[in-house]
């Protein structure tokens, strides 16, 4: 259907005086004796288009005025009577699809919880349209950033036989009938599609390392899957993961790149989504705009795990889980560090090797690894990364300590046998980044169809 985007009709000064056809859904309808006003949204902009109906020349079909109805309008573009931009003086108005009063989206503000129950319709609301516009702009900016900095975009497999994080959170991939009976687990997997136990990848890192140790700088941007039994506002069973991997990079390089990427993405969102950020600043997180501007223009803090634990131990009375050296940081600790102590994003580095993954570079102290988590106010961990262990002997020792199946990692180990180089990278949880930029507090509200424990609507 030939028509013009509402975004263009609204903002293009050259359109004033021209005829235009627009399509959209009715957001509001106001009526009076002489004129009526329809507010239309077609998704192309945060602002809606005001359609002015002169009732002396056009009598609108009542179905065209119902909230949620879809219509097509032909008319003349004029400068808005009030405010900035343009509006449309309707000459013809016709119905595309009617919308009965049972429409689950109503004009009054509805709770996010209610809207979670209608994921197929909630994108018709201002909040969700704004969140998904930010998400799209951020995704484009991810590709722009890496392309501009000489990284290659790699697609790591989603079905894999190796567990990157080793946390036992893999979904199994199988074609076995539900009542298959085998003598042993081994026999069971042998009969399955791949002939071995396979699952959905929790991270593209291991394949990313393969690519980085040939192409130099790469990134992946795709879904990761985690069968985490945690029903929190920050965890999904399926999330989008941005994972750069860089040859010849050590931990300080990894930190520098992570900070640079994050600031670039925030600036892109601020530049390209001003109306959305203004909306979130007014209705979702007061002070969001100032926060993002500040973060984009100031440096992040860095502190070691050991320093962080020393700070946290003094506050143990306030925590549900008291901290001591060696314990994993819980979200209450992460939030305290970034919100109360540093009051800005903070990279925590050099964690005890026992609480981190097998592939991380072992530090000279024999106790810690060259890992880093980036913690941000309101969310906690948004990035996890490290320098990788490049020494064959040290890596195999760490894998043996963890009782890992070495044969399954032969290719990964080969990278340490043939021209091994220092390298590192990180993973940025894309939904967590969108939460940070929008102030949305639940990861389910920045995901089209969120998947989590007992939830696959
Ligand atoms: O810290 P994680 O587990 O690190 C890795 O997977 C590494 N292999 C990354 C790398 O070095 N290439 O995950 C990285 C990030 C987390 O900081 C978090 O933002 C996000 O991925 N994340 C999740 N986001 C939503 N739901 C989940 N269940 C997530 N698990 C991790
Ligand atoms: Mg992590």
Helical proportion, percent range? 25-40%
Strand order within the widest sheet? 6-9-10-15-14-13-12-11
What composes the largest sheet? 8 strands, mixed
Gross CATH architecture of the largest domain:
2-Layer Sandwich
Distance between the termini: 32 Å
How many helices in DSSP terms?
Answer: 13
Bound molecules: 4-amino-1,4-dioxobutan-2-aminium adenosine-5'-monophosphate, magnesium ion
How does the overall form come out from the CA principal axes? Answer: elongated
**How would you state the average pLDDT, rounded?**
96
The total number of structural domains is 2
Our estimate of the beta-strand percent is: 15-25%
- The arrangement of helices and strands along the chain is HEEEEEHHEEHEHEEHHHEHHEEEHHEH
CATH top level assignment of the largest domain: Alpha Beta
Q: Report the CATH topology name of the largest domain.
A: BirA Bifunctional Protein, domain 2
Uncertain residue ranges: none
Tally of strands: 15
Rg on CA atoms, Å: 26 Å
Question: If you had to describe this structure to a student in words, what would you say it looks like?
Answer:
The structure is a single chain. The chain is of the alpha+beta class. The protein has two domains: 6-103, Nucleic acid-binding proteins (OB fold (Dihydrolipoamide Acetyltransferase, E2P)), CATH 2.40.50.140; 122-445, BirA Bifunctional Protein, domain 2 (2-Layer Sandwich). Helices cover 31% and strands 24% of the residues. The protein is built from 13 helices and 15 strands. It has helices spanning 6-11, 112-116, 126-148, 185-190, 205-215, 251-272, 274-283, 288-297, 305-313, 331-341, 392-401, 410-417, 430-438, and strands at residues 19-31, 35-41, 49-54, 70-79, 86-97, 152-153, 159-160, 199-200, 217-225, 238-247, 301-304, 346-352, 368-376, 380-387, 423-429. α3 (126-148) packs across α6. It is elongated. The mean pLDDT is 96. Bound molecules: 4-amino-1,4-dioxobutan-2-aminium adenosine-5'-monophosphate and magnesium ion. 4-amino-1,4-dioxobutan-2-aminium adenosine-5'-monophosphate binds at residues 164-165, 203, 205, 226, 228, 235-236, 239, 241, 243, 381-386, 425-427, 429, 431-432.
């Amino acid at each position: 259907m030939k028509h013009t985007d509402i975004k263009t009709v609204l903002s293009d000064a050259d359109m004033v005086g021209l005829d235009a056809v627009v399509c959209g859904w009715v957001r509001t309808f106001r009526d009076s004796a002489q004129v009526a006003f329809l507010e239309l949204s077609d998704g192309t902009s945060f602002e809606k288009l005001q359609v002015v109906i002169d009732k002396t020349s056009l009598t609108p079909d009542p179905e065209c005025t119902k909230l949620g109805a879809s219509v097509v309008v032909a008319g003349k573009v004029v400068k808005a009577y009030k405010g900035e931009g343009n509006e449309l003086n309707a000459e013809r108005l016709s119905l595309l699809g009617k919308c009965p009063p049972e429409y689950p989206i109503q004009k009054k503000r509805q709770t996010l919880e209610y809207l979670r129950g209608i994921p197929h319709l909630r994108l018709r609301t201002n909040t969700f349209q704004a969140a998904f516009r930010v998400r799209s702009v951020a995704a484009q900016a991810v590709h722009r950033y890496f392309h501009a900095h000489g990284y290659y975009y790699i697609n790591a497999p989603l079905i894999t036989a190796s567990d990157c994080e080793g946390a036992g959170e893999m979904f199994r991939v199988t074609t076995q009938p539900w009542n298959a009976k085998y003598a042993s687990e081994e026999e069971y997997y042998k009969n399955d599609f791949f002939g071995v136990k396979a699952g959905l990848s929790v991270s593209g890192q291991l394949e990313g390392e393969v690519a980085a140790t040939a192409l130099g700088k790469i990134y992946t941007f795709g879904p990761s899957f985690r069968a985490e039994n945690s029903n929190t506002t920050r965890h999904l069973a399926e999330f989008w993961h941005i994972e750069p991997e860089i040859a010849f990079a050590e931990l300080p390089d990894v930190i520098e790149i992570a900070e640079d990427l994050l600031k670039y993405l925030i600036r892109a969102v601020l530049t390209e989504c001003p109306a959305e950020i203004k909306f979130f600043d007014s209705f979702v997180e007061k002070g969001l705009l100032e926060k993002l501007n500040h973060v984009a223009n100031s440096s992040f803090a860095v502190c070691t795990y050991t320093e962080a634990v020393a700070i946290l131990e003094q506050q143990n009375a306030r925590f549900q889980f008291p901290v001591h050296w060696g314990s994993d940081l819980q979200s209450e600790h992460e939030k305290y560090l970034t919100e109360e102590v540093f009051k800005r994003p903070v990279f925590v580095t050099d964690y005890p090797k026992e609480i981190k993954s097998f592939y991380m570079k072992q530090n000279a102290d024999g106790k810690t690894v060259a890992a880093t988590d980036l913690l941000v106010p309101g969310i906690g961990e948004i990035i996890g990364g490290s320098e990788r262990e490049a020494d064959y002997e040290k890596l195999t020792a760490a894998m043996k300590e963890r009782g890992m199946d070495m044969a399954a990692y032969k290719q990964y180990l080969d990278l340490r046998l043939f021209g091994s180089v220092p390298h590192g990278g990180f993973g940025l949880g894309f939904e967590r980044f969108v939460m940070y930029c929008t102030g949305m507090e639940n990861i389910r509200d920045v995901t089209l169809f969120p998947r989590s424990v007992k939830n696959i609507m």
